[in-house]
Amino acid sequence: MKKDPIVWFTKYLLDFMFFTGIATCAGVPWLFQLAGKFYTVFRKYYIPYCVIFIFAGVFALIILWNLRKMFRTVIHENPFVRENVISLKRMGACAFVIAVLMAVRLFFVVTPAAFVLVAVFLIAGLFSIVLSHVFDQAVSYKQENDLTI
Q1: If we measure between CA atoms, which residue out of 117, 96, 110 comes closest to residue 45?
Q2: Contacts of 63 (CB under 8 A, 6+ apart)
Q3: Which residues of 15-35 are buried (b: 16+ CB within 10 A; e: fewer)?
Q4: Tell me: the pLDDT tens digits for 49-64?
């Protein structure tokens, strides 16, 4: 692919998010201990919050991993492949799991941000599933077209 600055910026942004996400997930117990010094909710619900946020972080990392995989196909100018359909379905499932985890968080502390996160990840999951169907159809057309030529 031509060196489109937006494409390369996005690729490096995804890489940065993935690797810093690993560090953040690993650091959740220490970060929440530190936050507990300033916010009582992190002291009161330390264990449940650690579990919820570590699991949510792992599923977010799976989403980022699949986005990075898909981005490689964009860079190599071959985005309509079956692997991207699988990645989109996996990303949708992960987004739904994160939405559930954020909904569970509401049992401990109800905040507007938690409701927003539930809504965002539900919508992201729906879009990923719908996009997987679109990509599946595009892959089928592409394969049919390749056989014709």
Answers
A1: 110
A2: 91, 94, 95
A3: eebbeebeebbeebeeebeee
A4: 999 999 999 999 999 9
Integer angstrom CA distances of residue 61 from 14, 19, 23, 77, 96: 10, 9, 11, 24, 14
Q: Tell me which residue of 92, 85, 95 sits closest to 132, measured CA to CA.
A: 85
Q: pLDDT (tens digit, 9 = 90+) per residue, 121-135?
A: 999 999 999 999 999
The answer to whether 21 touches 57, Cβ cutoff 8 Å, is: yes
**pTM of the predicted protein model:** 0.91
| Burial of 37: CB neighbours in 10 Å, binned 0-12, 13-18, 19+ | exposed
